[in-house]
């Protein structure tokens, strides 16, 4: 059984898609998947489904949704996917049956390779990790209870992307990542590390004027919208570019 949360919520059993039903059932499955095999109490499920404003029949409706999910998994070939626990309900999963866990394992492997100086291998592993994403984490799931986990997953995605880009630049592939970095900086206008990587890639591609223009854009955004100046790393990179120096990402 595999549960996919790095994109729209999906579940498969031996490649057979599981029909997850409506919003409530999907919210329940998402909470169970994020619990990584730990039991989830019914009150937590109620809060996630109704965002803290449950009807009197909430617990009964949770049981109905749980029965529907169990039936759907059974029809796909996994009748024991969800078990009733003394503390609530638990999704029975193999260690890497959630794509987010596979992602984390691959990212840690890439970091280990990078520490060993095996940058090209680390880039390849990071690419396989990032390829697991098929859209925003839990795309379409609107429960407020899920949003902290969504933000955490998205942060991990961006950090892994930053690490891959840094390694690409260190490998001399600065020209190859400029277009990607332009899109990323537009998507994350206040993320200084990405803007610094764009500046560095442009400078190493002999596009110094564009690198300095990129600095001016991020500084203007930070000052006008957040009321802060760029951090020392970004401002130091600008000075290095002005002096014609070389900096790492």
UniProtKB/TrEMBL annotation:
The keyword Kinase does not apply. PROSITE patterns: OMPR_PHOB. Residues 1-93 form the OmpR/PhoB-type domain. Keywords: DNA-binding, Transcription, Transcription regulation, Two-component regulatory system. Pfam families: BTAD (PF03704), Trans_reg_C (PF00486). InterPro entries: AfsR-DnrI-RedD_regulator, BTAD, OmpR/PhoB-type_DNA-bd, Sig_transdc_resp-reg_C-effctor, TPR-like_helical_dom_sf, WH-like_DNA-bd_sf. Residues 1-93 bind DNA. Belongs to the AfsR/DnrI/RedD regulatory family. This is OmpR/PhoB-type domain-containing protein. It comes from Streptomyces sanyensis.
